[in-house]
Write a structure and sequence with these properties.
308 residues, alpha/beta, seven-stranded mixed β-sheet, 10 helices, 40% helix
Amino acid sequence: GPPRGGPPQGGPPRGGPPPRTPAQRLLDSLFEECFRLAYAFEPDGLLDSSKNLRVLWVRALLASAGQLQDDIAAQLLPRASRWVVSPPFVPLWQPVLKKLEWIRQRTEFIDGVFDGFLARLDEGQGLPETQCVLIGSGYDTRALRYRREGLTFFEVDLPAVLKVKRRMRQRYLDELAQEARILPTTAEPVELGVDLNEAAGTVVQRLSAVGFNVAVPTLVICEAVLFYLSPPAKQKLLGEFSALFAQATPPSAIVLTDNLAPFLRSERFDEAEAYIADAGLRLVQHDTLWNGAIQFVHAESANYTRDL
């Protein structure tokens, strides 16, 4: 799991990462130009030079370096340029791999919770009806990596992001079909296109309108999305999921690797536990990065026990 706290002395300030240096801003600009080149021959609509796309490239690179289990990320990248992060070219990226470690840490934390969630439900007779809600889904690959019978994904993000993601996913599935490789036959992810800063507090209601079932075991995932929400929106979003888990079927849970400032900035388990308890949840796992700026939280309803 991620190391507790993070780098001593001089880690990012409480509440978020440090301001970007002039060199980092220059690197950002170079990345933007590289993305334009990488997607120069892609169909219109498949270029998004946001942080979502950067993370997808990073996941592909970390997978090629053997530091992350994600065999999908690279397949969502353009055919003409994905070789840049393929295994033979990993040595060229060695100087930056250490700085990308928190992507690996947060992915492993969430995937570990997801694996445990599914294991508690699957008793050898197949997975019962199950749901996973990806808040701020971006180009997350879990709807493809965890694709299986009985599991429905709900992806919540801006409409423009979901549109690009849908085209990436379809292209990947088309490539599999051409190679005579077949994934399990399951429903496509259900999309909810909203601005979370505006929709927070009504997300569960909106999900219900597109097929979400509050009576079905559900895992809610928030991965580096709360950074972009105002404190009131954060509070509303977490509040409505707390209300959901009060009536949800075990082992419904929430897992997040995110910024919870100004509500929680501590590295201490007991302080995180108190904050989560105030929301009507029970803290199962907790860790932090960067002096508490990033919270790794796995919580579930306080109304049921761990032995399913």
